[in-house]
């Protein structure tokens, strides 16, 4: 799971395994270790009807409606988004990059644009 923060926007990108685990277990959590402190970011499935988020005790949590996760996991749906107050929230599948990159992308979703690049 990756997180991107820009201004008032949070973007989570999920690999195939992340998506499966979130649908099965109802939560995901990762950490960034700053040495003396950690920043945690998480996704949690809820019975709510819309996305929401909190930041408490160094944990950013995005709450995702159960219905959205099932559709996300079981179909080709690329992602979903919403707002929580002034905060824009986006959760999407992590596609392989079209360019060569050093990071391991073996668990990413196949990029739908890769066939067009050939």
Task: Write structural notes for this entry.
- The protein is of the alpha/beta class and 118 residues long.
- It has a single domain (2-98), classed as 2-Layer Sandwich (Gyrase A, domain 2).
- Helices cover 19% and strands 44% of the residues.
- Strands 1-2-8-7 form a 4-stranded mixed sheet. It has a 4-stranded mixed sheet with strand order 3-4-6-5.
- The two termini are 28 Å apart.
- The mean pLDDT is 87.
What is the secondary structure topology, with strand pairs?
Blueprint (H helix, E strand, L loop, with lengths): L1 E5 L2 E6 L1 H10 L1 E7 L4 E9 L5 E5 L2 E7 H9 L4 E6 L2 E7 L20 H4 L1
Parallel strand pairs: 2-8, 4-6
Antiparallel strand pairs: 1-2, 3-4, 5-6, 7-8
Helix pairs in contact: 1-2
